[in-house]
Design a protein that fits this description.
One of its GO terms (molecular function) is ATP binding. 23% of the residues lie in helices and 32% in strands. With 381 residues, the protein is α+β, with helices and mostly antiparallel strands. Helix 4 packs across helix 5. The radius of gyration is 24 Å and the shape is elongated. 41% of the residues are buried. It binds adenosine-5'-diphosphate and magnesium ion. The site of magnesium ion (MG) has 3 residues, from helix 1. Magnesium ion binds next to helix 1.
Length: 381
């Protein structure tokens, strides 16, 4: 796990002058009978920050979110909110806004009453409640729907109301668990844009956003925490994790990635500027995600859109055979099988078919001019 850019501090106490994180999770472990759903999980989310928990189904994302919300009891570890230990507090004492996948609106209540629910439970005065309901519905573009029942709304509208309900209590922390995954593609894209706007309207709120969808994580998160098998595998800023993934798993989960077998040319430290590796017949500059020794086997990560096609005999290319072309609208995805490292399949996204040979013909694949990241071997299921 690469935590080099994460500022670690004891949760809750805060170093002198630095405020405690809005959400502090330390050593959190959750078991269901014999299943460990979350193992020794650490995460801090700062005020105003959005962190996406990204991982495949069953990796423990919802379990982490539920433990923060107070919906389940961890078997070990702590949760703090603004430095206050809430591990043993019930959900309604935590003052958190929660939005889940399937809306979970009260079907027998009108929209306005759904949104007012948390305020009434907190005995907020009537006039103030009305004001906040209007404000929250306004934030999600649903101000004219207050008198409808949930069944009279589309899925996207219901999810907007669920977000308004979570926001009405003006929570310092907002938890969203796959809020878009029940919607069809168009609605999902609309609501994603809406969430981006909302994020800008809530500069002080800490957001933990659970998703298995890399598009949502890339669009919304300041940092992404990648999960697998109940554990945090990698965490970094969104941009860095995409451009410089530290593991095969993160590289292939956060976007398409070619994983090319490589051998390290000489000892190098993590981030070394002069590191090189052998890939097939080539020796190329690489960006090592961690320290390697000479001759270590490693994996070179190259995103399909960074590769280009060349003549098979051109200098500095990996030679192979074109085995597939797929039109994807904006680009064509070419599949090539390399001569060396023998049998390695690479995918290459190109804007035009100009210069692309016929299927079965020899082709050259050129790596990007920028050094590709070099990661340890293994880790993709
Ligand atoms: P995710 O949200 O990443 O899909 P979850 O946190 O829901 O994953 O689940 C993590 C693991 O815990 C899975 O193996 C899942 O089957 C298991 N699990 C989740 N909830 C329960 C439960 N109530 N009882 C037993 N096992 C559960
Ligand atoms: Mg889940």
């Amino acid at each position: 796990m690469d935590t080099s850019v994460v500022i670690e501090r004891p949760t809750g106490s805060g170093v002198a002058g630095a405020p405690p994180p809005a959400i502090g999770i330390t050593g959190l472990t959750v078991t269901y009978g014999k299943v460990t759903a979350l193992a020794d999980f650490d995460l801090q989310v700062a005020r105003g920050e959005t962190v996406a928990l990204l991982g495949p189904s069953g990796s423990g994302k919802s379990t982490a979110l539920k433990a923060v919300a107070g919906f389940l009891r961890p078997s070990a570890g702590r949760v703090t909110l603004d430095g206050r230990d809430v591990t043993h507090e019930p959900p309604n004492k935590r003052g958190i806004g929660v939005v889940v996948q399937n809306y979970a609106l009260f079907p027998h209540m009108r929209v306005a009453d759904n949104v007012a629910f948390g305020l009434r439970a907190r005995r907020v005065p009537r006039a103030e409640t009305a004001r906040r309901v209007t404000e929250a519905l306004d934030m999600v573009g649903m101000e004219t729907y207050g008198r409808r029942y949930p069944r009279e709304l589309s899925g996207g509208q219901q999810q907007r109301v669920a977000i308004a309900r979570a926001l009405a209590i003006r929570p310092p922390v907002l938890l969203l668990d796959e809020p878009l995954s029940a919607l069809d593609a168009t609605l999902r894209s609309d609501l994603l844009g809406e969430l981006q706007r909302l994020r800008a309207d809530l500069p002080d709120v800490a957001i933990l956003y659970v998703t298995h969808d890399q598009t949502e994580a890339l669009a919304l998160a300041d940092r992404i925490a990648v999960m697998r098998d109940a554990r945090l595998v990698d965490i970094d800023t969104t941009d860095r994790l995409y451009r410089r993934p530290p593991s095969e798993f993160t590289a292939s989960f956060l976007g398409a990635a070619n994983l090319l077998p490589a051998r390290v040319a000489g000892p190098c430290a993590a981030d070394a500027a002069d590191a090189r590796a052998h890939v097939g017949p080539l020796t190329v500059p690489v960006d090592p995600a961690r320290a390697f020794r000479a001759d270590d086997l490693a994996t070179l990560v190259a995103r399909p859109h960074t590769l280009t096609i060349a003549e098979p005999e051109a200098p500095g290319v990996l030679r192979g055979v074109l085995t597939g072309t797929q039109w994807r609208g904006a680009t064509y995805r070419l599949t090539c099988v390399l001569d060396e490292p023998a049998g390695t399949e690479v995918r290459c996204d190109v804007a035009t078919m100009d210069g692309v040979p016929a299927l079965g013909a020899p082709v050259g694949v050129r790596l990007p001019a920028e050094p590709c990241v070099l990661v340890p071997v293994g880790g993709v299921a």
